[in-house]
Amino acid sequence: MEIEITINGRKRRFDVEPNKLLLNLVRDELYLTGTKYGCGIGECGACTVHLDGEAVLACMVLAVDADGRSVTTIEGVADGDKLDPVQEAYIEEGAIQCGFCTPGFIMSTKALLKENSDPSEGEIREYLKGNYCRCTGYVNIIKAVQSAAKKMQG
Amino acid sequence: MTINKVNTHIVPIEFEYHAPGSLDEAVALLEKYGEDAKILAGGTDLIPHMKQRKTEPKHIVNIKKIPELACIEETPDGIKIGALAKLRAVELSPQIREKVPMLSEAAGSIGSVQIRNLGTIGGNICNASPSADMATALMALEATVHVYGKDGAKEYPIAEFFQGRSDVSLERGELLTGFTVPYPPEGAGSAFEKVGWTTFDIATVNVAAVLTLKGGKIDHCSIALGACSPAPIKVALAEEILKGKEPTDEVLEEAMEFVAACVEPRKRWRRAPPEYRRRSSQALAMDAVGRAVEQARRHQ
Amino acid sequence: MSFPNMLYGRVLKSPHAHARIKAMDVSGAEAMGAVTLTPEEVPDVTYCPRLVSIPSATYKDWKVLTDKPHYVGEAIGAVAAESEEEAQKALEAIEVDYEVLGASFDALESMKPGAEPIHDEIYLEDDLLKVENNVGCQLEITEGDPKALEDADVVIERTYRTNRRYHNQLETKSVMVRPEADGGISVWSTTQTIHNTRLLLHDIYGIPMGKIRVYKVALGGSFGSSIHVNPVVNVAVGLALKSRRPVKLSYTREEDIRDHCAYQMIFKLKLGAYKNGKLAGGRLEAYLDIGAHQIQAYPLLGCVVGWWVSLYKLPYKDYVGKAVYTNKVPSCAFRGYGNPQISWVVETMMDELAGKIGVDPLDFRLNNYIGEGDIFWGQGPSVKSIIQSCGVEEILTRGAEMVDWYNRPNPEEQTGRYRRGWGVGRGYHTSSAGAPVPSSIVDFGGAMLKMNEDGTFDYVSALMDHGCGTQDAHIKIVAEELCVTADMVNIIRADTGTTVYDVCTHASRGVYSGGGAALKVAMKVKEKIRDFAGKILDAYPHAVRIRYDEEREQAVVFAEGIEGREVTYREIAETARHKNWGTAAAVESYRQPSCPPHFTGYFVEVEVDTWTGKVKLLRVVAGADIGTVINPMLAAGQVHGGFAQGWSMTVLEDLPYDPDDGDLVNRGSVANYKVPTTMDMLDLDDLTVFFADTYEPTGPFGAKGIGEGALNPVAGTVANAIQNALGVRFFQLPITPIRILEALREKEG
Predict the structure, then answer these.
(1) Is A79 exposed, middle or buried (0-12, 13-18, 19+ CB in 10 A)?
(2) ipTM for the complex shown
(3) CATH, range B69-181
(4) Which tens digits make up the pLDDT trace of C478-517?
(5) DSSP state, residue C695
(6) Does the beta carbon of A57 lie under 8 angstroms from any beta carbon of chain B?
(7) Domains plus CATH for chain A?
(8) Domain ranges of chain B
């Protein structure tokens, strides 16, 4: 099927089978491998991307269902070589250990801060509970989100 | 055994994809393909189930292009919610938060933000999972279900919608289009409670309660229990006990016995044995009713 | 990762817990154009996937593809095709005829006479061994006078059963293999050891070592699950060699959860103490349910006794450990390597013993812990050393003060729905398996360092970093020694061909042991820099000094007090090139002479909802003695993560089996293998981490490890807190809400 998706700001056309997952489209066709397969069933959040600005799981979206819509992956977050404040905060706060969950967390954090520029710790925890991390116990991740919120408020 | 058939990297089955633009078109497709067709709404259940080979549809009917299905609007009979309304929209809708806050609370308890941005209220109901949180909440709210088929639209109480575990009363060619959730009586308090293994889990038990107080006594009372029987149920006996009484600890405890009695043990209940469900259903019902009473008191 | 012309591999897995393959028909898959691989097409080599022990301590019972699968999920065949979709279809087209055999899912059952033999014969080094009663290997050790235990005033004996946990590392086991024109292969895989991967592939496939290049890749946390070479690697190599094309083989989550898990253990522990608050001795029987194959069961039997006897002084100790085969997923190391399991048992019993003799559990620990100057055999009886730094007392006393320990609740005074309790628990872990004499465990590493012509450095090491900050710490060590900033030391991408041997990133050895190698090469390079500088400055090399000059952004070598006699690293490197002196470079291997324990202690407060059985964390105070803290933020991060894993181990995780079909009850779905979310942990303000002030004389700049000690005491601590809230002790993990309600019903009706 012919589809058109705006990926990280660029319109792209694809010819895909209807059973192709958005996750595999961005990873295998576009080599945007920052979006990770973690579980394939919506448990881990490693494949979080933005679909029309909302955080969703790319392992649960058919590529054909993204036809005509806009997708942002972790690769679309930084401005050239300049990291996004959320990315900076994750590095500065030691929120990255093995790094496998990080892209998903950053995509969720971006969505959170867009909706709520000054979230409480409880709101952060609620918003990120679909992102799983085995390394950090989430401590430095929560700190990074708080720090990113501060940075973005200026 | 399906060990070599399951593959969650991909959707390991092939199907024909349809994206009808109208209800009539959708219904015609469902009529034509019958059991070979599956409706794609949020996809949060359908897609994992296809990966796990729990379902192998030959046709997928994506209903997202039917605009009227995603509505949330106030009507004289209650709030009308389209089947395609996202769980996140139900959670955040100002109308729902104001008029039926418990529904918003229940929606917000499901999955994660990412799941709720995809999953729909209709999908949560149509899977007929005994633990579906929306189902328990809508039961307590005594919602009406709207169905559309080749003979046109029909509606019936949600309690009649569930036919048991994983089964709903949709005929071939019929589509769930939405719900009308009646406004609870003036001054009502309501609450939704659930327990799972973690905060990101399907319910081991869930409970929804809606009630009003009149002169310090419980007047209207509706309690629904989920994940303890093939489909969520109303706990009529507990409601009866509570009606007309002051909600003292003794009265509540008496009523809760009937909640526990509703647990219908299943042969293979992997998440928790019946005894655990009995005890925790009582606890959650106490919490839900207790919170609803508090709220109703504040509204007086 | 991807390569042009790459194929996607899929593994054919046994649906039976124990069976013999009578026939396998791959014609359907081949008709689709797929490349297939059957047990007859791979080398008939029986191997052990973990190469950390010396050969005489290595038990072998694995095949690349087996015609007698021993657990649901074991690889019996494989396919490769142009896409994952096609590979999947081809996989489904393979037909297999099985003779289903009897199976056993419990270690104690498995040892009983008449139980189905799981392996008839296995190898120890190259000798064939007969397996009896499904015991894969065993170890017995006794020290001291048994009279000590007989004379004890109080003796407790109990049976404990741990849970079967899945690492649930976010990156599933994956590999890419590219066959090379010279008959060799290039391999990129999820591994904690590139050199051992090469060794094993050489052993199995007979390819000369120099033609096997295993590359370091960015690796997701593996928590011990890739100390051994993951089975997918060996399968993918077979597919690549047959197809002569690059093959990518990446496990799905449901395959990964049937690939590895932690060791489930059953312990019978007897401990005795005197009324004066001293331990008399103990006896431990340990039954390790290893699953269907040995990965490192034998060294683990040694570690279990080591972990047990190195927490507290036991004048008499008697140990029997048996590794028992069952028809379950093979167990492998998981952060702590048996230490979290045995520490849960010991810390639980220490509390119980303290209660019986009427001393405070904290004082009881302070009375009996093994500390500075004591003999430590953390990595088992063959790896002993003397403890030279110890912060146990500081951790326990400071922590106790912070939480007002001596005023904690009394469980008998609590009756309401919500009940609170405080628990204390201790732990430690060895940093590496170093020792003054050779043992049965290989533990050395190596590194290369060279000065570049602009005065920066290239650092090359085979040590893998899977997210613990290991490489970062190495860079800091090198930079510190050479008086430069960390950004002047580059980490070079490397592989087995460009590095010297390093055993593995495991056993919390990355900083202590690997960092030791880093320090050694840095010292050697510094010597050469001094020599060069001495020539340039006309000064004695041993007399010159080095400082970092912020203005010039260069390290400067100078002769103190003599005006103008100074030269930057850049100038030294340039001069050395122009004058043909050579490069200031060094390659070294290094083995640490000991394996100093890093110590940890936790204080945890919980609240139990006695109606739902839910346990909520209220407060956690964690103290750690890791010697010099090289990177406080990353070290604290290890404590946070270790605590979260320990919490999850205590209250959530388990992998029960369905005896009807021998598969996991959860059918491989992580929707039914829950781990804590952001909301299941405690708020930032309720978690305190502090470090004891110690210095490890054998460690690089006084440092020790932290990775595993951060986890080890958690289960014991949380269990003690639950006991303090409810007055009930649990002898089985996890302590789920279901078990809590059952126990309360028994106690209170």
Answers:
(1) exposed
(2) 0.98
(3) 3.30.465.10
(4) 999 999 999 999 999 899 999 999 998 887 787 888 889 9
(5) -
(6) yes
(7) 2-76 (3.10.20.30), 85-153 (1.10.150.120)
(8) 16-62, 69-181, 189-299
